[in-house]
Every structure is written in structure tokens, then in C-alpha cells.
Amino acid sequence: MITKKRLLASGALALVGVWSLAQAAGQGTIAPAAPGPAMGLSLPDDRGDAPPPALAPAIQAKADALFADAGAVGETRALLVLRDGEPVYERYGPGFGPDSKMISWSMAKSITAVLTGFLVSDGQLSIDGPAPVAAWQRSGDPRGAITLKHLLHMTSGLEHVEEGDPVWNGDTVTMLFGTGAPDMAAFAEAKPAAAAAGERFNYSSATSVILSDILADTLTPSKSPEARREAVRDFVSGRLAEPLGMTSLTPEFDAAGTMIGSSIMHATARDYARFGEFLRNRGVANGQRLLPESWMRFMLAPSPGDAGYGGHIWLNRPRPRGAAEALWPDRGPNDLFACIGHQGQYIIVSPSQRLTIVRLGITTDAQFPELRRHLADLTAAL
Predict the structure, then answer these.
(1) Rounded alpha-carbon distances, angstroms, from residue 84 to 47, 99, 226, 279, 298
(2) Tens of pLDDT along 275-302?
(3) What pTM value is reported for the model?
(4) Alpha-carbon gap, residue 117 to 297, rounded angstroms
């Protein structure tokens, strides 16, 4: 029986850019060596209206099942599969199409990590130096030991409750939609240390907002919200969106001008696929290296606190005992990784299979195991 409390919690979760991870992962397999990356990306809008080539019927059935089995996996609004950068499957749910912008939820975290990588590679930020947050620089403040690496690995040690019980008691809801919403970074940065930096893994949307604040502070000395928004928009456009052709990418900002880099960006399925291809090609787009190979190695290396998580991205590796599976390490290659967002948003990249898969939709917590199984089945079949 569904209680009133359960209904209220479900309604609140529909507003939150978080995803519950509560079950243990299995063991991974060793991936074969990947071939060299394709240089560039050709999606359907680059080639006119030519449909993707036909898939084998058995593979087609596994892709179509993500739409047909809505009772089990939730509503799939978009599914796009690329092999070697070329579309082999593209389908949309009723009311959605190639031009539909859809919310990223926590897939935005991986975009924030890439933007951070640009500034580190430019020499404007240090990954191992103290994070430049003014509120943490007082003598004796343990938060002064927090580095960008700790933030990217979700091991800052800051007090943060990603999901409350009930859900609206969590820090993420308060930050995104409650009293912390006008200045999300101030809310996140004011949290006290609950552990030493690097001591434990704690998935935190507030961490990504702190990174967004650092990005803005690095790009402009101004505290004007409009100046901060303009500086970050120009940076996102010039360094990422335009070079990758992600023309639909639309980040959102709070009233203080901080990009909501944890949760709220919008783009089409094709543009999310472009980002996935950029990661699959290890920072190369259209034959040009935009992000250093060293940053890609960092993002895709297991973090010390959780082998299933890298630098703001999920890895197909076994997680610590008691932690929920994010992907399917018992079935897929261990070089597979993914940007994952609340309600079942996925950019799945499998370099050794030369695949990028985008799935966007609405999935409940109870449906996540079946959604993961369907996506694992499709990935294995491809």
C-alpha cells in the first residue's frame, strides 16, 4: 500500500537532482585494449535526415524494450546509440524529438569536472593545492586542507546529507529549492567539516556547486551576479559547447550568479552524445585535443574512497561493501563509465566497445534495478 508519506516523498524526489545508491556492486571484467579514437562526430543533424543503419533484430529488440517496458523501467524519452561516433539507433518518446532539450540532473557534475579541467590545464587552478574558497582560509579551519581533488572525488569531509528522510530534510533539497537556493555556494561552503579531507567518500551535490563557484571566481573578480553568469556562459560556450557542437547546452544559475553545476543543465540527446563522444575520445574533438590526456586519466581513475567513482564520473568498477551499484561491473568491461542523473539520465561510454549511449527519461527508485539491467543487456548485445 502506498502511504501519504511515500507519495509526498516521491513528489519531492521528482524535484531533486540526486539519485539514491543503496545496493552493493558485483565484480568487473577486464576490458580489451581499445582501438584509437575516431576523430570527430557525425550525428543525424550533420547528415540531413538519413536514418541510422538497421540493427540486427535481436539488438533492436533490446533497444526498443527501453520504450516498450515502461512499467518496469519508467518512461524513456530519448535513446541514442553511437558506434564509432556514428548513430546506429535513435528513438524518442511521444512529445519528444531531436530538438527537445532535456534536463541533465547529476550528469551536469561530469560537465563541471571537464570545465574544471580546462582551468587546471590553463594553470589557473591547482588540483592538489587548497581549494580557493575564502570562507575556509581562516587559521585553524580544517576546511583549508580541502583540495580540488578532494572535491572532485567527493571526499571533502564536509557535512552533507544528499538525501534526507523524509527527502525534503536533505541538504540537497534545501540548497536547490529551499533556503539555500538564492546563494547555493554560500550554503554549501558554510557547512562544517564532518571528517578530515580525503578520509571518506560522501556523494554530494553541494560539492559540485562549490566547484562551480570556484570556476566563476577564477573567471572574473566581479561579485555581480550578471558578470559571473556572463563570464561562465562565455567560458562554457568557447571552451566546450562551440568546439563540440553542443549548441543546445544551457546551464542554469542561481541568483548569486553561480552555475548550478551539480544538477541543472539542459541539452538535446544528440548534444549529450557529443559530450559522451568527447569523453570516449579522451578529450579530443574534431581532431583537436581540447583537454589534456592527464585530466582524462584523472577523471577515469578509481578514487581512493570509492573505486566505482572517479573524478565526478561513475566507473564500472566494484564499489565498497554496502554501497549501491551504479553500473554493472559484474557484466561489462571495466573501462565503461557513465554520467548518471536523477530519474534515469545516462550518458554511457564504453571505449573498448566503441560505444556511446544516451538514455533520458523518468524512472523511479523502485525501477532503477530494471533500468540498469535493460541498459546492461543493450550494452552487452552491441
Answers:
(1) 15, 23, 40, 13, 23
(2) 999 999 999 999 999 999 999 999 999 9
(3) 0.88
(4) 11
